[in-house]
Amino acid sequence: MAAEFHLRTGKLVALLNGNRTAKRNKPTEEFNHGLAMSREPLGDGQLFQVRIDRKVNSWSGSIEIGVTALDPSTLDFPSSATGLKGGSWIISGCSVLRDGRSVLEEYGQDLDQLSEGDKVGIQRTPGGELHLWVNGQDCGTAASGLPPQVWAVVDLYGKCTQVTVLDCEPVLRREEPLRTAATEEGFVGMELSDVVNNAILSAYNGNLLNVSLASPPDGCSVTSNDALLFHEKCGTLIKLSNNNKTAERRRPLDEFNNGVVMTNRPLRDNEMFEIRIDKLVDKWSGSIEIGITLHNPNNLDYPATMTNLRSGTIMMSGCGILTNGKGTRREYCEFSLDELQEGDHIGLMRKSSGALHFYINGIDQGVAATQTLPTVYGVVDLYGMAVKVTIVHNHNHSDRLRRNNAIMRALSPDVGRRIFDSGDVEVERLLFHPNCGQKAAIVCEGRTALRPHATDDFNHGVVLSNRSLRSNEIFQVRIDKMVDKWAGSIEIGVTTHNPAYLQLPSTMTNLRSGTWMMTGNGVMHNGTTILDEYGHNLDRLKAGDTVGVMRKEDGSLHFFVNNVDQGLAASNVPSNVYAVVDLYGQAAQATIIDDIELPPLPDDVLEGNNQISPCSLFSLTPSNDLRFHHLHGNNAVITNGGRTAFRQNCRSEFNDAIVISSRMLREGEMFEILIQKMVDRWSGSIEAGVTAIRPEDLEFPSTMTDIDYDTWMLSGTAIMQDGNTMRNNYGCDLDSLTTGSRIGMMRSSNGDLHYYINGVDQGVACSGLPPELYAVVDLYGQCVQVSITSGSLPVDNSLSLSNATEKSFPLLSPVPGITHRFHANCGKYVALQNDGCRAVRVHGFSHGIVFSMKELKPDEIFEVKVDEMDEQWSGSLHIGLTTLQPFEITCASSGLPASLLELRSKVSWLVSGAEVRRNGALQKQNYGFSLERLTVGNRVGVKRGSDDTMHVFVDGEDMGVAAAGIAKNVFAVVDLYGKVVSMSIVSSSTLEETESTKPPSMSSGSCSEEEEDLSPCENEASVFLATIEFMENHGRNILLSNDGHTATRVASYNQGVVASAQALPRQLLFQIRIDRLNTQWTSSLSLGVIGHCPERFNFPGTASSIKRSAWLIQRGSVFHNSLKICDNYGPNLDTCPEGTVLGLLVDNTQGLHLYVNGMDQGVATQDIPSPCFVVIDLYGQCEQVTIVTNDIMAPGSDGSHLCCQGDVEKAGVVDGIKENLCWTPPPEVNPMKTCEYQALCARFKELLPLPDGYFNEELKCNLCYCESCRKLRGDEAYYKGRGDPPKDYALPFGWCRFALRLNPRCEVTNVYKKWHTAYHGTCVGSLRRTLDHGELVSAGSASIFCSKQAKVELQNGYNDPEVNSAQEKDTVKVSLSPTMRYVGLDRFCPKIRFKDVRSQRHHQAQVAFQVCVRPGSYKIGPPSAGTGESIDPRFSNNEIEWITKERASTVLYGLLVRVE
Questions:
Q1: Structural Rg of the chain based on CA atoms
Q2: How far apart are CA 746 and CA 672, in angstroms?
Q3: How far apart are the first and last CA of the chain?
Q4: Which of 50, 298, 1035, 1355 could disulfide-link 1057, Cβ–Cβ 3.0 to 4.6 Å?
Q5: How far apart are CA 96 and CA 236, in angstroms?
Q6: Reading across the β-sheet that carries 1374-1376, which strands appear in turn?
Q7: Is the pLDDT of residue 790 over 80?
Q8: For the residues 941-964, what does the mean pLDDT come to?
Q9: Rounded to the nearest 5°, which phi and psi values hold at 551?
Q10: Given this model, what pLDDT does residue 839 score?
Q11: Are strands 939-944 and 356-360 parallel, antiparallel or unpaired?
């Protein structure tokens, strides 16, 4: 049926080609008045379709199409189709409008995105529905209830300027796609690859023993048009390509839904439908969803997301299953679809039994639904982050490589395994796979793995097992060799990746799929920490220790250290996982342990190069038996041998996480827990208390305050009994506690319940409690994870049944070496025994001070054990460090005080109870474990860290930093005070290694005497400067270049976090330069430090999201762990222009400083830990930075070889400087770097022999007004309302101001606030005389060029009397201006030429003064220079010059310098 446009159109439309082409005239001048309509009304089912012939880019918007009941013969055409009323339906962009009002958003395909050649049509169905067709594809119902007579409307709007009507016929919608008949050639027509594919598919479907090479069964012949593809009808934003095998969501940064696609046919039984993720964006939350539906795609009205469909649909979303939009399984599998990366595969299969299974990277996740109908379609929702996917067919080569060994064995059973009969029990031996990390090697027939060059590289040492682990099979290795050069050590775990096809990463924690690793004392899954405190710390293991991993039959994962199970680490771990060992950091060699004879340790281990772990030689002392009970709330998980409890799904669940002690508390026994992890998602936090209910009898409620009998709880500040509040405002608030806080509970012998916060008793909470009580903790709200601490000890020793103590973080003693000794000089009541290893106080309660025999080395621990106590005394042992050398004590009886608290002859740091003191002065309260609670058998140690900090250890657990700034040469000191009567040393000094046996390190090698005299800090700084670069681990959009010194963000506006590869030493300035900005974005970079190594850190999208041990400077604020702690600090970093140099420095007092173009902005925050690493976020506008620290010279290093001419005879220069004379300035004494322009002006100022006494010593008062500095500060061009009455003035842009010393008299009278600000141009020859006078005077009276002799100041301090003549007074005339644009002219400021000694370049300089002028002492007038042009747009030329003749009417404020 031929179709044409009606002759009546919009006023700019011209019809061509027999009225079949419509063209908008003046397309680049006008964007509307382009309406065209069909000549005849549309028939039922008739498609009126046009082709877009031409578009222009001048406008926004494009073609609009629809129908109207208005007759074009009588219509008064509006300017656009959206102006049609009286029964009109128009589709504009993605919206449907009726009579100009939107009735449907996000419909169909966006018409604005169509290109030239695309076809778009409109159809009215016999049922009165309106359908849009784009390129032959029906977009579904746009509207209903259309009248029987409507005309088609086309609006040539915006970019669309010409269309042509196409021949249209009535369209009948097909309900089912056509299928091509199967070929009858059978196996004859099949290629060998098709047979192989069938074998692979059969193996992949689990039928390994049913591989057939015969002809395929009838009706199952493989034909190309029967392959699974995406259906042509899909979501409104979906674009199909690659023969409908690839689907992509348009406008992924603007829209996050309307991305549903379905298969072109129903899925067959046991047929795999698998897709590969091709593209993700990081703007949205949520990601891809996949599943099945009963709905035929031809008949489905596609929803925005498939989870909105309320019938016949099962979807996997995140890690759960949704049926008809409602959650039916919250935790279906360990994997979460939201965490998958580009390249990951997702599949599903409907088994012949009706069960639905999902697959992630080829791994079956188990049954998701048991019964599904036989006819279902596969469906994918490209939601949120997911943008593009491709269907993966079994014949893809890359897919075949990705399959596990079961597929290969289906094709050739002899490949990769031993053949044995079903009755044979032979099992392939566990060995290391030959495919290993770049720096690793496999020896001893696959039993031993090592890093041959362990002192050169610390990573690339990943090795995997040669086969997958069987259920309940342990994979265990022994550490053979270690080096002490690096931080970190061995890591062990499992992975689903086949080592034959895995591209091994530098460390396994960088792998983002199918991997579980134990690292340190934490557990990571796919590079993300899931357990913070788990088991023994692997970083503390020594040569001879063993580590192992086992996947149990129930899917649980357990790790073993020295054959001791560390508890549950993870659940739902799939089968067919490979063991993996990462020889990282100190770990250099490991050997697999099995029943076969184990090779001996390497000789060098036995000779002393490695410390052999005592844990591998003897068992540990039994620890305290308090644990969490195995019965607990639904969301609670117990791990770490019962010592740690955490709430799973902490961001989606806030309760159902009650845990209870494993036994009843004894009288006077403390049950103490440490808060290890919190989230900021919920309100409320931990609740703690006691209950008389046995765990076996308790039906765990959602919260413990729901129990209405025999339970006492502290919630916030409220004490509750049986769910009812007994009292409010108790001494502590549990909701205010943070990570690292400790909570203890104790029932005293008289039945009182006490709570302890960080070791401090909060008083009686309630009384009359029964004796048999269990401790109970509710991990509620913000509190996620806690661990039982070593504070869980009996407080009342007489009531305790056991003195064994908890060793949550054991630091094993003794270590190899020479046993420590006490020094012979000690307190007068101390007797030394056992060759100086034991100290006993023989009388009284004091005079028990003892010292270590030698000074402590860095990081060396001096540790003692309490042997005997006398309860008649109060108080307890004191321990610390002192600079007092014990051999200097000549007489013990008179040289030492009675108590360590009184030792003040030399600097001493000590811990007494829970207090930290320096020379007796209190420094810190509530520090760590209170020494008042020590009992017999407890161990206490002290360490001076290499970072100049003091740490105290209780039973091997580090209590944290007690004090900082510790001197280098210190002795350990202990006071046998109060009830502690005797103690024994249990620690040893480290072995003294010869140079030949020491492993090479960065600090080894020969040094000159000068180098040896450097302090450790200076040596550390020199190493840092020589090796500084960015860490290879960084945000996903970062590209490093220039040998790791330059970081560039190559995409988007975030994911640009980088960190320094080396820790930042104290007192070293780390600087970067901003190389490139992109004004397309807003905001800019931020920078700061983090207190943990970024080597294996999973960087978030922005640095502000780092919530652990992070200090960040952003804009003009300081943040700690994402919380703002300081505002209005320094300049706004968002205003930094290109070329700005930003720096960070941590001083010796742990303060963080920001430097901007070398200028210190002051302390941003305190208590920065050591070590710390610099972190920089290339966010928003900032796209590239470069490290420039290596180019920075030490202050005063340049020019030090030059002679100082401060003593030059004044007669040799003309008032301070000769004409065109270039002479050497004195050495730079300014320790603070400035911007280059400010430094150049400062060097010129040094050429002028002006006394330093005239200038302000506060360098921060000197301001540079160059383009960079003034933009950095955000300076406005004009200062409004200065003085009384207010008077505006302009800032001296382009000049540099050096502040002059202020006159105290002027400060008292508020001259600088009440007087006006102005400028005075002068010459170099007048500077000294003007400064001598302290105010401006005319050139005639002030300059030495004047023939009239200047006044001389007499010895008595009075001046000669002035000449009282009008002629003399007339000569005192000074010109001022509120803007430097006027007085900065050459007439007032003559230029002088000089040579810069640093650059050896010639420059011209000008000088001027910024002054305060008394209101009313000057007259305002036009410029005396006589120029007619406007000088400053802010000031009229009639008020540009101020003239004063009054003396004492001006006060000098600053010297201005401009250099060209």
A1: 41
A2: 9
A3: 80
A4: 1035
A5: 13
A6: 1374-1376, 1441-1444, 1418-1421
A7: no
A8: 88
A9: -100, 120
A10: 92
A11: unpaired
Q: How far apart are CA 403 and CA 1018, in angstroms?
A: 54
pLDDT of residue 183: 35
Cα distances (angstroms) measured from residue 482 to each of 182, 490, 603, 994: 65, 9, 13, 17
* Mean of all residue pLDDT scores within the chain: 79
Least confident of 350-354, 371-375, 625-629: 625-629
Q: Residue 1430 carries which side chain, given as an amino acid letter?
A: S
717 CB neighbour count, 10 Å cutoff: 15
Sheet holding 356-360, edge to edge: 238-241, 246-249, 386-391, 272-280, 345-350, 356-360, 363-369
Question: Rounded to the nearest 5°, which phi and psi values hold at 950?
Answer: -110, 130
Residues 6+ apart with CB under 8 A from 360: 333, 335, 337, 340, 344, 345, 346, 347, 513, 514
Q: Of 1333, 1339, 1334, nearest to 1321 (Cα)?
A: 1339
Q: Has residue 566 got a pLDDT over 70?
A: yes
Q: Tens of pLDDT along 761-787? A: 898 999 989 988 999 999 999 999 998
Do 892 and 827 form a contact (C-beta atoms < 8 A)?
Answer: yes
Place of tokens 């698998």: 274
Residue 79 near residue 32, CB atoms below 8 Å: yes
Q: Whose CA is closest to 925, among 913, 943, 938?
A: 913
pLDDT digits (tens, 9 = 90+) for 1004-1061: 333 333 333 333 344 444 445 556 789 888 898 899 888 889 999 988 888 999 999 8
Q: Measure the CA–CA gap between 311 and 1436, rounded to whole angstroms.
A: 77
Give tens-digit pLDDT for 1384-1419.
888 889 999 988 877 888 899 999 999 988 888 888
CA 794 to each of CA 591, 788, 876, 1458: distance values in angstroms, whole numbers, following the listed order: 43, 14, 16, 75
Q: Enter the DSSP assignment of 990.
A: P
Which residue in 1168, 1192, 1160, 1173 sits closest to 1073, CA to CA?
A: 1192
- Stretch (H or E) spanning 172: none
Read off the amino acid at residue 561.
V
- Selection from 661, 562, 565, 643 nearest residue 808 by Cα: 643
Token output for 644: 């740690």
- Range ranked top by mean pLDDT from 324-328, 514-518, 1230-1234: 514-518
The percent helix, strand, coil of the chain (3-state, each to 5) is 15, 35, 55
Higher pLDDT: 201 or 985? It is 985
Element (H, E) at 1331: helix 1327-1333
The model's pTM: 0.27
Of 111, 128, 129, give the one whose Cα is nearest residue 120.
111
At 492 the pLDDT is 95
Give the Å distances, CA to CA, from 352 to 208, 222, 356, 372, 689.
Answer: 17, 20, 9, 10, 54
Q: Are strands 119-124 and 130-134 parallel, antiparallel or unpaired?
A: antiparallel
Reduced to 3 states (helix: H, G, I; strand: E, B; else coil), residue 538 is helix
> Quick one: pLDDT at residue 123?
93
Query: Please, what's the b/e burial string for 1353-1362 (b: 16 or more CB within 10 A of its CB; e: otherwise)?
Result: eeeeeeeeee
Q: 231: which residues sit within 8 A by CB, 6+ positions away?
A: 244, 261, 262, 263, 264, 297, 298, 377
